[in-house]
């Protein structure tokens, strides 16, 4: 077991290293930020001073070594635009993104599981067919397009909900969050709904498939033969069986929510790290782009590592050996 | 003795895309208080469907199309769901075939037993727990308190089936339907389970329908035997009569195919052919295509005849149980 | 007793049922899929014929009049024709712009799909052919890449490479090849364990021959299914990136670019500039997905046989 974890850890480190090479060289070989940063009427001396200040005059491998040694100390370089450490900028924007992603995850489970449950219990009803058609749409519709429609409907036409920004923030357990105020909540709702859409569809499908499988199992028929009410069978016997896979999968999707938040944040002007990334790309703010990508890579590698280890612990063969006893 | 259950002319059909499957097609029998009725037949003969029909657990596309099921005198065929729900697990309990599949894998034993009590009686959890513990003790489970805390996968197959039997007896039902409860178990465990079940029915006066494909199992357990073939009961009678003097060629075949000590050295009998396709039943006697005694008369449905308290569906009863 | 069994052996063969005909009849069993296929056909025809069926080439500056800007649907253009879908901020007829945009969106999606399919298939077959260590390494890389969402991979690549048609196609190919590779290798794994492959090997056929004559044909059905769904995904991904401003440049106005251009007008109630290109995108993606879904249903049972 320990050997397995150490091996996976080494692999994860290798991936992070490879990605750092790809990201750094990729970003630095293409695009030239100097022209973006120096005013058009600057003379050659100004330009050279800027280049020196940013360390762009050194050979690329030296820049990389500097970057790696800096990264090891938590220093991913300074933003060209803001002049602040890139890592600090990203960490500063991270809470807003996490808040959005968590809200979306919550919505996905809170909306998707009940709908999936209904569709699984009454597969032939009209409403179920509507739910399933909706989930197909949810998979097909591009996130940004749904975001636009949400803004058009709820913000422009109906004027019910605000479409940009985070609104007022308050404090819950010492964390500054929009979820603490009414205004903040109203700001979170549309972007969270937008981000959640894909995951709602996923939750519907997972739950429905799980329910349909469980309803055909002997233990459900046995529960009915015991004279249990439908409510108890569905909410205790069936739900408990399907929640384990559903929650596992939804948890795994958290990483992809962080990734997709780039789109949602851009549309709703949500001040998270996704919007920061897009702004940085458009302004050729390379240190911020590199720092974001490295953080995301780290994030995903970490999630995958945890999942791998968890799966090895929950290896079905181990459980099977238990059952045979 | 009082009749607990009277089933007459029961028909349960399944309306599939391919056609109507007449899984149960005219079944009659009676079970009296404290009596064990063996319902014997090959897989696909409709014996399990008969059991589920009594409990009202037939799901679409299947449904009871005709006949009556009287339980303690009241008609329950196609009764409304709430009424059936009150009976299930309370007055009529069921034990399923595979104990690996019937207990919910993610719920503890105590949860699954207590809910069976609380579904029908409003008793405190503690009382229900104590009754569950005592019930486990009755079926010979050592240290029941510990087992109650276990999850199903922590128990062996035999142990789980004992849990299922204990659960069935929890509410002192009038009738227990046991659907091949020992088929999935080892032979030694099988004997113990049969012994426990028999003991409990004697003690409590609970009637029982024991569904099985194995005549040997019910020979020592049941008071009466009904032999089913292709959705119909072909022979019915007291256990000793049926075993000693089978009249229907199918029963004769079934008995002949059971290995036993006094037939050592003989070739085991084999019923030729296969169970009929439920979608394309032969006309007349369903067994005729496989029957050695069949004549062109068998193209018409044989009438039900009653001889010495035995009921039979055959044109050519085998006299004196001569081995074919 | 064997005379009791009389199986029917003769069934009248009135019409020859070719695999394709059976496939088609099964496909058209679903009304939704049939509608989707027709719609998709219509969309492709419109896109291909765009220069001949639009009143205006929206990117020929000589034909665009700024005076026509932001006209609502149904308005009359300066040049005299009716703008059924209205016009955008710089006076382009939206109907024309959408058809030209469809051309770009479809080309990018299909091109990246075909390239990714070819590369993924080659790599998947290589893994299946080589086996052992090579297969292990290839599949490690595939698994690693699939652990990142395709959208994120594409976003990272454009973040590194910048805008442009070639770069977007490259990003989409990199984001998607792994799905094809996994599909091919997965099918190969199943096929490799079947008797006929063993039989072929026993006959002394070369491994190369087994891969190309036996494994590859069996991969085609799942590849077609994955290909349709991935192409829809590619189109929608390109639109997303373009909408974010990191995809195609303004000189290559795909549907995503058109939607992005209309976004600023949306808050002032001029919905049509974003909505109509969006609807075109939607119909395209959804119809491809529906066709893909039906293809999967029709092709899958045959895989099991």
TrEMBL record, chain A:
Subcellular location: Cell membrane
Keyword Mitochondrion: no
PROSITE patterns found in the cross-reference section: ABC_TM1
UniProt KW keywords: Cell membrane, Membrane, Transmembrane, Transmembrane helix, Transport
Membrane disposition: Multi-pass membrane protein
Signal peptide span: none
ABC transmembrane type-1 domain boundaries: 94-307
Regions crossing the membrane: 12-31, 100-121, 133-156, 188-207, 242-270, 290-311
Family membership: Belongs to the binding-protein-dependent transport system permease family.
Stored PANTHER family: ABC TRANSPORTER PERMEASE PROTEIN (PTHR43163:SF2), DIPEPTIDE TRANSPORT SYSTEM PERMEASE PROTEIN DPPB-RELATED (PTHR43163)
Name this polypeptide is given: ABC transporter permease
UniProtKB/TrEMBL annotation, chain B:
PROSITE patterns from the UniProt entry: ABC_TRANSPORTER_1, ABC_TRANSPORTER_2
Principal localisation: membrane
Record membrane topology: Peripheral membrane protein
Alphabetic keyword roster: ATP-binding, Cell membrane, Membrane, Nucleotide-binding, Transport
Residue span, ABC transporter domain: 5-255
Signal peptide limits: none
CDD domains on file: ABC_NikE_OppD_transporters (cd03257)
Compartments where located: Cell inner membrane
One GO MF term: ATP binding
SUPFAM superfamilies referenced in this protein's UniProt entry, alphabetically: P-loop containing nucleoside triphosphate hydrolases
InterPro entries linked: AAA+_ATPase (IPR003593), ABC_Ni/Peptide_Import (IPR050388), ABC_transporter-like_ATP-bd (IPR003439), ABC_transporter-like_CS (IPR017871), Oligopep_ABC_C (IPR013563), P-loop_NTPase (IPR027417)
NCBIfam families: oligo_HPY
Family designation: Belongs to the ABC transporter superfamily.
Protein name: ABC transporter ATP-binding protein
Organism, as annotated: Ruegeria spongiae
TrEMBL record, chain C:
Main subcellular localisation: membrane
Subcellular location: Cell membrane
Keywords assigned by UniProt, alphabetized: Cell membrane, Membrane, Transmembrane, Transmembrane helix, Transport
InterPro entries the record matches: BP-dependent_transpt_permease (IPR050366), MetI-like (IPR000515), MetI-like_sf (IPR035906), OppC_N (IPR025966)
Residue span(s) of domain ABC transmembrane type-1: 102-292
Membrane-spanning ranges: 32-53, 104-129, 215-235, 271-292
One Pfam family linked to the record: BPD_transp_1
Taxonomy, superkingdom: Bacteria
Membrane topology: Multi-pass membrane protein
Alphabetized PANTHER family for the sequence: ABC TRANSPORTER PERMEASE PROTEIN (PTHR43386:SF26), OLIGOPEPTIDE TRANSPORT SYSTEM PERMEASE PROTEIN APPC (PTHR43386)
Similarity remark: Belongs to the binding-protein-dependent transport system permease family.
Name of protein: ABC transporter permease
Organism: Ruegeria spongiae
């Amino acid at each position: 077991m320990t050997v397995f974890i150490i091996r996976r850890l080494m692999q994860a480190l290798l991936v992070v290293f490879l990605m750092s090479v790809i990201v750094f060289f990729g970003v630095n070989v293409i695009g030239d930020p100097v022209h973006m940063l120096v005013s058009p009427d600057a003379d050659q001396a100004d330009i050279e001073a800027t280049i020196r200040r940013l360390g762009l005059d050194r050979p690329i491998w030296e820049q990389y070594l500097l970057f790696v040694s800096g990264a090891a100390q938590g220093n991913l370089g300074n933003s060209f635009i803001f002049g602040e450490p890139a890592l600090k900028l990203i960490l500063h924007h991270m809470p807003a993104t996490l808040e959005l992603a968590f809200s979306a995850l919550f919505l996905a489970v809170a909306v998707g599981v009940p709908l999936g449950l209904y569709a699984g219990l009454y597969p032939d009803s009209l409403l179920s067919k509507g739910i399933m058609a909706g989930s197909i749409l949810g998979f097909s519709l591009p996130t940004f397009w749904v975001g636009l429609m949400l803004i058009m409907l709820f913000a422009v036409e109906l004027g019910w909900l605000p479409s940009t920004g985070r609104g007022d923030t308050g404090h819950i357990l010492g964390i500054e969050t929009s979820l603490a105020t009414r205004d903040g909540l109203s700001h979170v709702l549309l972007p969270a709904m937008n981000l959640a859409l894909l995951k709602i569809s996923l939750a519907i499908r997972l739950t429905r498939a799980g329910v349909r499988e469980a309803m055909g199992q002997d233990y459900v028929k046995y529960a009915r033969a015991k004279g249990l009410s439908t409510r108890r069978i569905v909410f205790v016997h069936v739900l408990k069986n399907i929640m384990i896979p559903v929650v596992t999968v939804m948890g795994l999707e958290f990483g992809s929510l962080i990734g997709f938040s780039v789109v949602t944040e851009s549309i709703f002007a949500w001040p998270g790290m996704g919007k920061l990334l897009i702004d940085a790309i458009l302004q050729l703010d390379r240190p911020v782009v590199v720092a974001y990508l490295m953080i995301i890579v780290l994030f995903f590698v970490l999630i995958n590592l945890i999942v791998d280890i968890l799966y090895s612990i929950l290896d079905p063969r181990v459980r099977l050996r238990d059952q045979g006893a | 003795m009082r009749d607990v259950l009277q089933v007459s002319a029961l028909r349960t059909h399944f309306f599939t895309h391919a056609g109507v499957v007449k899984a149960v097609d005219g079944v009659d029998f009676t079970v009296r208080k404290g009596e064990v009725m063996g319902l014997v037949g090959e897989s696909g003969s409709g014996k399990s469907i008969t059991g589920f029909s009594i409990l009202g657990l037939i799901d679409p596309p299947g449904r009871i199309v005709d006949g009556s099921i009287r339980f303690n005198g009241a008609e329950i065929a196609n009764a409304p769901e709430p009424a059936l729900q009150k009976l299930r697990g309370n007055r009529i309990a069921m034990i399923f075939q595979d104990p690996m599949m019937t207990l919910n894998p993610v719920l503890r034993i105590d949860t699954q037993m207590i809910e069976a009590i609380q579904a029908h009686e409003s008793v405190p959890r503690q009382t229900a727990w104590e009754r569950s513990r005592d019930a486990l003790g009755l079926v010979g489970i050592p240290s029941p308190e510990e087992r109650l805390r276990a999850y199903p996968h922590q128990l062996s197959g035999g142990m789980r089936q004992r849990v299922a039997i204990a659960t069935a007896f929890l509410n002192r039902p009038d009738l227990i339907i046991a659907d091949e409860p020992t088929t999935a178990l080892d032979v030694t465990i099988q004997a113990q389970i049969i012994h426990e079940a028999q003991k409990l029915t004697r003690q409590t006066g609970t009637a029982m329908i024991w569904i099985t494909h194995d005549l040997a199992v019910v020979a020592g357990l049941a008071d009466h035997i009904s032999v089913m073939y292709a959705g119909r009961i072909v022979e019915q009678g007291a256990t000793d009569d049926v075993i000693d003097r089978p009249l229907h060629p199918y029963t004769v075949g079934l008995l002949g195919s059971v290995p036993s000590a006094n037939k050592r050295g003989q070739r085991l009998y084999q019923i030729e052919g296969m169970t009929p396709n439920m979608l394309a039943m032969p006309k007349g006697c369903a067994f005729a295509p496989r029957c050695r005694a069949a004549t062109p008369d068998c193209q018409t449905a044989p009438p039900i005849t009653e001889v010495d308290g035995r009921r039979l569906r055959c044109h050519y009863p085998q006299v004196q149980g001569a081995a074919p | 007793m064997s005379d009791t069994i009389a199986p029917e052996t003769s069934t009248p063969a009135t019409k020859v049922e070719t695999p394709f005909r059976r496939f088609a009849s099964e496909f058209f069993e679903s009304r939704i899929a049939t509608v989707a296929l027709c719609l998709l056909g219509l969309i492709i025809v419109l896109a291909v014929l765009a220069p001949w069926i639009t009143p205006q080439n929206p990117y020929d500056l000589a034909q665009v009049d700024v005076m026509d800007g932001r006209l609502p649907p149904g308005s009359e253009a300066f040049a005299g024709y009716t703008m059924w879908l209205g016009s955008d901020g710089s006076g382009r007829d939206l109907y024309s712009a959408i058809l030209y945009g469809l051309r770009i969106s479809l080309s990018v999606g299909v091109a990246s799909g075909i390239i990714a399919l070819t590369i993924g298939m080659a790599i998947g077959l290589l893994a299946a052919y080589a086996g052992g260590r090579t297969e292990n390494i290839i599949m490690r890389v595939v698994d690693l890449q699939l652990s990142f969402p395709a959208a994120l991979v594409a976003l990272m690549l454009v973040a590194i490479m910048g805008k442009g048609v070639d770069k977007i196609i490259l990003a989409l190919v990199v984001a998607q090849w792994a799905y094809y590779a996994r599909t091919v290798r997965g099918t190969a794994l199943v096929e490799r364990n079947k008797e006929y492959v063993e039989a072929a090997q026993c006959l002394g056929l070369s491994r190369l021959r087994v891969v190309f004559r036996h494994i590859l044909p069996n991969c085609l059905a799942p590849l077609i299914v994955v290909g349709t769904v991935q192409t829809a995904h590619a189109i929608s991904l390109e639109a997303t990136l373009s909408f974010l401003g990191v995809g195609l440049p303004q000189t290559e106005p795909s549907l995503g670019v058109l939607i992005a251009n209309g976004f600023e007008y949306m808050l002032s109630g001029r919905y049509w500039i974003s909505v109509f290109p969006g609807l075109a995108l939607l119909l395209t993606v959804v119809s491809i997905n529906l066709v893909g879904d039906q293809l999967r249903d029709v092709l899958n049972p045959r895989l099991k046989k």
